[in-house]
Amino acid sequence: MTSIGILGTGRVGSGLAAKLAATGHHVVLGGRSPTKGTATPTPTGDANPRISFADQRTTARTADIVINATPGDSALDRLTELRTELAGKILVDVSNATRDVDGLPGDLCYPGSSLAERLQAALPDTRVVKTLNTMLFMVMTAPDILATPPTVYVSGDDEQAKKTVTGLLGELGWQDAWIEDLGDITTARATEAMILVVPHILRRRGFKPFAVSLAR
What we know:
Helix 1 (about 10-20) links the parallel strand 1 and strand 2. The protein has a single domain (about 5-205), classed as Rossmann fold, CATH 3.40.50. About 35% of the residues lie in helices and about 20% in strands. The chain is globular and about 40 Å long. The chain has helices at about 10-20, 55-60, 70-80, 85, 115-120, 135-140, 160-170, 190-195, 200-205, and strands at about 5, 25-30, 50-55, 65-70, 90-95, 100, 105-110, 125-130, 150-155, 180-185. The model is unreliable at about 35-45 (pLDDT under 50). By secondary structure, it is an alpha/beta fold.
């Protein structure tokens, strides 16, 4: 199976690690400390031998596919420093770059552009794919918990990279009919802008699972 490195050991990174490890992948969670993480890899809380921890540079260097689950407002600088380690890799960006207000997403850091576009420009030897950034974190790994079929959007310049990432989405539980390929990496500015609706929904509805989806 594919070796997957996840940069970020919070709720997003840990949730993705647990689900991808359950499907048979070896997952390395990359954090500031290589010995600490917040993942609960198995339903019983036991350690999962398919999940290990490392620093972020080692994670980027050793994985076949790297997922960016770090805070979006600082991700560009952080990942640019890993340019050599990320060369030739697929980088799956699931973050949103916003200036948070009171713990909720605020204004976009890159209006008229997107974090994904900035990452692709800064990492020309890396194939950046944007996805999974238009929902609460628990929906990423369990889309069937929603009463209405959700949509996950995919943006990227490299068709083979998007095909590979679409396969991973399927392993996370996303049906083909729920996956919407928007086109090249510039389309990520549309999905990243969707984050602007999130704080209003959370204030009115509370912290309940939802996704910003297409109704067909």
